[in-house]
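job 3f2a | input accepted
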Amino acid sequence: MRVYQFRHIRVLVSLAPSAGWAATMRVVAKERLQAILEKAFPDAPEVLVIDRGGGDHFEARVTDSSFNGLSMIDQHKLIYKALAEPWADGTIHELRIRTKGVTDTGGAS
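job 3f2a | predicted structure (109 res):
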């Protein structure tokens, strides 16, 4: 908040957006990230984006067979690559990543 004083008149200007606007932007950002990850990992049994607050702090949980055999660092690189645009435009400030490969629990007997 900024305070401007002109002679005997004091004007308060709020720099924060309204609560309704901020909530709408968080939902839009979360849905955008979810759509990007679903497109990047179309066969993933789990793709989940969680808003961790602030409208730019998120958690991404992705389970996909493309992670099988990869180190955690390489798995996370695939997530960062998919989300390169939202990182660049400031949509994401903080991102927690949880990835895992898909194991075949079925089997032929």
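job 3f2a | The CA atoms of residues 62 and 105 lie 18 Å apart.
job 3f2a | closed
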